[in-house]
Amino acid sequence: MLPVGLHVDGDEIAPLREGYELHWHGDDDPPHYFFSAQVSVLRLERLVRAALHALPPLCHAVLEVRRSDEELDKDPDGPTVDRWVSDLVARSEIVAVFERYRFALLHDGMAGFGAYDPESPLEVFLDDHKLLSLYAPTMEPFEQLLGAHRVPYVKDLRTLLDFDHEHHTLPAVPDRCRVPRARALRRQRLDVRWFGPAIRRRLAMQLEPQYQDDDADGQ
Fold first, then answer.
1. Residue 43 predicted with pLDDT over 90
2. Cα–Cα–Cα angle for 134, 59, 132, nearest 5°?
């Protein structure tokens, strides 16, 4: 099942399946494994929570918000996302923030959230396509975690990135497609303009210097 804030026209999305790809980035500094997992939004919350618990007790939180079409038109040479990062904070606080805003973070097509360890390649990030990126210096802990959640390894996994799709903020979804209880999506606390700043305040996040998409890989 797709998140509410991501939409693909027609039946083109039917071939999508759950699974993960695995790649070794040996030329990076430091070298690491990269897991990219696609999971139904109905099961994604449990997987993200478990992955965050695999991080060390102190780490950096990350929030990314995709720029709107209007913002991109005004600044066509700028990045497609704005990225905020916290100082070292307790992992428990990051998990609590995810719990507090989990519906918005799992369904809003404009927001991504995660955390990383500055002392190692360990990172967990749920991007704006709701693909879960996991980075680690060894196969563990994430290979075991994915197996425990019955997410299979799939070579050449087809993801949402392989299809033409749209990103929606949750309050805009009722205007573009029919969803149950559409009126509830207009609540202020489900608007990225509300929950984004709320997360940044709670975790004391700072906006990172602007970067071009071809100058950084989002890590």
1. yes
2. 20
- 216, part of any domain: no
Amino acid at 159: T
3-state secondary structure at position 10: coil
Could you give the number of structural domains in the chain? 1
Whether residue 163 is contained in a domain is answered as yes
Tell me the percentage of the chain whose pLDDT exceeds 90: 58
Exposure string for 61-86, b = 16+ CB within 10 A, e = fewer: bbbbbbbeeeeeeeeeeebebbbbbb
pLDDT in tens, 104-126: 999 998 999 999 999 999 999 99
| 37 contacts 131 by C-beta, under 8 angstroms | yes
| Mean pLDDT in residue range 19-42 | 93
Domain limits for position 79: 6-211
Strand partners, 170: none
Residue 103 has pLDDT above 70, yes or no: yes
183: its two tokens: 């009126």
Q: How many CB atoms lie within 10 A of CB 18?
A: 16
Indicate whether 72 belongs to any domain: yes
Nearest to 121 by CA among 28, 194, 53: 28
Q: Which two tokens stand for residue 26?
A: 């040996």
